[in-house]
Structure formats: C-alpha cells, structure tokens
Amino acid sequence: MSDLQKGFYPHGDNAFVANFSESEREVLTNLSEQIIELLAERIDHQSDDPLAALVGITSHDTPPEDEVLLRLLPNAYADQVDASEFRRYTESTLRQKKQGHAMAMRSNLISAIDGVVEIDRDGANDWLGAINDVRLALGVRLNVEENSPEELQLLAPDDPMHGVYTVYGWLGWLQESLLEAVMNGSQ
Fold first, then answer.
1. Residue 184 buriedness (CB in 10 A; 0-12 / 13-18 / 19+)
2. What is the model's pTM?
C-alpha cells in the first residue's frame, strides 16, 4: 500500500506522517485559508471595556448570518437569551481556537518537504479540528442534512458540487486515518 493510500500513519513514539501530492496540498491549503478568513473576528465597535476585550467578551450576542459560520459557531442553547449570553463570552475564543487549528494545518502543509507532513499529538489535534471544520463547511454547501449520501453520489460529473462531495469524502477518509493513527499510537 502506498503512502497516499494510507493517509496518516504512526511514525515513532509520538508522531504521525502523511504524504500528500502537490494538488492535495494545494486543496488542503486553500481550504484551510478559507476557514481562517471565514472565522475572522466580527468587528466589535460597542466594547470599550479593556478587560472585556482582554478576556474575549464581545457585544456580539446574535448568531452569524452566514450559514457556514452558524454551523461552525452554533448556538449553545435553544433559549435565545441563554444562547446570546453564552455567545458573548465564548464566540471570540472559539473563533481563535478554530483559526489556530486551520493555521497549524496550513503551516504544516506549506513547510512540507516533498509532500511529507509530520505532526506530533498536538498537531494531530489541530489537524482533526481543522479537517472537521472544513468538512462542516463543505457539508453546509452540500446540504448534507437534506441530501442523502446516495443522492450526493449520483451528482453528475459536471455538477460543481460533485467535486465538493469528492473532497468532502476524501477529507472524511483522511480524518479517519489520522484518528486510527492516534489510537494505534497510544496503545
């Protein structure tokens, strides 16, 4: 089995390796950059409190209007008052954490020599978070809640969503390979 068919695999005591083609690295880098951009902070004009700014409390208490952002930053509670209050205290930190995952993945891809990405356990957590966020974003675009996998597999080859679904599936496989590598490496 070639490295491309393996995805991630354990390497040594605390490392995981994957070998990506140039086109795979370009796709992953582009997707991570889109997530980084998408998660850019909302400008908070109403908070002049330096302590609130320091700890990430914002005046933003409404969910994002963009459906992908809403999926990445969902309401924590069904009750709007509780959800709004929780969002004020957590959204900024959650955005930063998710951006950090995507930035780490992007950095690993850009610095890969001959397509080989080697990450440690912290890097694996970053990659798992970043891949998950990209898949969530693509899932919204594919409307996976309404469309069954069977329907998505039947997309015509010239349908732009066909390529999106192919990447979505590949990312699921890549995520699974990393999870298996982490689990096998911890035994």
1. exposed
2. 0.86
